[in-house]
Structure formats: structure tokens, C-alpha cells
Amino acid sequence: MPxxxxxxxxxxxxxxxxxxxxxxxxxxLAQEAVVEGFGYWSGRDVRVEFRPAAPDTGVVFVRDxxxxxxxxxxxxxxxxxxxxxxxxxASGVTVEMVxxxxxxxxxxxIDNCEVHxxxxxxxxxxxxxxxxxxxxxxxxxxxxxxxxxxxxxxENVRVGNEESWIEARxxxxxxxxxxxxxxxxxNPAIGRQTVQMEVSEERFVExxxxxxxxxxxxxxxxxxxxxxxxxxxxxxxxxxxxxxxxENELRFDDECARHKMLDILGDISLTGCRFVGQIxxxxxxxxxxxxxxxxxxxxxxxxxxxxxxx
Length: 310
What we know:
Blueprint: H1 5-14, E1 25-29, E2 33-38, E3 45-52, E4 59-63, E5 70-73, E6 79-82, E7 85-90, E8 93-96, H2 99-107, E9 113-117, H3 130-139, E10 141-147, E11 150-152, E12 157-160, E13 165-169, E14 176-184, E15 191-198, H4 201-208, E16 214-216, H5 217-225, E17 238-241, E18 244-245, H6 255-268, E19 274-282, H7 286-299, E20 302-303
Parallel strand pairs: 4-9, 11-19, 14-19, 16-17
Antiparallel strand pairs: 1-10, 2-3, 3-9, 4-5, 6-7, 7-8, 11-20, 12-13, 13-19, 14-15, 17-18
């Protein structure tokens, strides 16, 4: 059995320098990794197999339950709008709830990976990216002799309106930083939360990957009334009433805002590039995240820095 996310976090924080991605080279997995579970929306069992892929493949989902199998690139061109989740499509076939898988791959610096699945919806697991991070770290990663593409923000770009927006700004150095403000004025248990950090691999594993999906109790009850989420228990996701999580405990005081940042990572990865810049968001969700990613790809040139040694 792979180690728990807590054990992985302790290892990363304490001593494992190998987690730092060397240079500008692309990376893939050293071996296959598997996660099994069920989809939150559909309730269907699903098996996910992460497999190594050649340079410049990017992340590609493969629906092995179909004959012939259908390949769905993780790209902005593949994205279609669906409520409360990120869905990709190709040839009339979809994969959905992919944001936590994509965030795990991006956060660990895995550029090329085939994600083989036997159902449309990815497993919800505990509502975070942590279960995927655990198996991917256990599988290991190898560098490839091909440079990565970078998307470097050169001036401010904002999408949205006064109530909810997301903005990209230039970075002072070569870093990627996130700032998210969450505001639930009608639910004091969530309230207003603001989280800001420069995103490194260590911080991703420790501070973002474990942050879980959340919803209000009224939203959970409505979904159940529509026949959705019937296999999901309150221990699988954070369901909030006015007093706090129902039958669950927070991993972070500001876990809800951290999960929104996790979603941004998954959605921005659809550019297929490593991001250099700052992202600042106020109450944004998947739709605005994707709008920003499209605006950035239209506005700025993708660059390919020369390879350098670690």
C-alpha cells in the first residue's frame, strides 16, 4: 500500500530534495500508478491508471471502456461547460471531474501522462488531490530530454465582474503565486477566507493537495433530490451547516479557499504550459478560471526556455 498523504507530507517537508523539478525539462512517470474509487455524481466505480508518456504528449485521458478507445487531450479546446466541475470532450465522448487529477499532475511537475479510465467520471476519493498525489509520488518521475513550454504573464489580464473575478499579473521573478479570496456572507462557518502563497512543489503537496471539495447543506440536499451523489457520505466531502462541517473536521481553518486554489491549478493546466506569474482571484470558479486561461493564451506568446542542468 502507498504511504498516507500525511506521511508523504512529512517526507517532503523534512528531507526529500528529489521532489524539486530540475531545470526546464519535461517529465513523465517512472512507472504506472493506479487509483480506484467511484464518481461523486454518477456513483459509478472507476479505475484510473496513470501511465508514462512520450515527450510533448501532454496529459491525455483515454476511455478504455469504449471500443475503440477514445483519447481526450487535457486542453482548453477540449473543455465544455458543466456545473461545478471541469469536463473534457472529444469525438462526442467525455471525461469529467478531471480538475483534481490535473492539479495533482501539474503540482508534481508531470508534463506527459496518459490517464487511462474505464468510466467517464473520475473518482471523487476524499474530495481532494491527495489520493492522486500519493500514488504519483510513489510511482516516481523521470526527466525527458525535451524543454517545457512556459506561459509568462507580461501585463495584467482580468476576466469576470465586480462580484467574481480572476486576474493574472506579471511576477517579479520566475515564480508562480496564487491569492484567493472566498466570501460566503450567508454562512458564518465559512465566511471570508483569503489564502496567498508562492506555489512550490513542497507547498502544493503540504498545503493545497489535501484541501477538499465543499458545499452547503442545502446544496447537498438538492443534489440528493436530483439523484446525484447517492454514494457520497459526509465523510467524503465537506458539507457545511451554519455551525461548520457536518460529521467531519477541517484539515485547515481556510480549507475552502485552499480548495478553490487547487481548482485553479487544475484549470490553468489546460494551457499545457508551466505558468509564470501571479493569479489573484475573488470568488472565481471553473468557468472564470478557464476564461482567464483562454485570455492568457490569446494575449501572450508561449516560450520554450533552453534546457539547463539541475
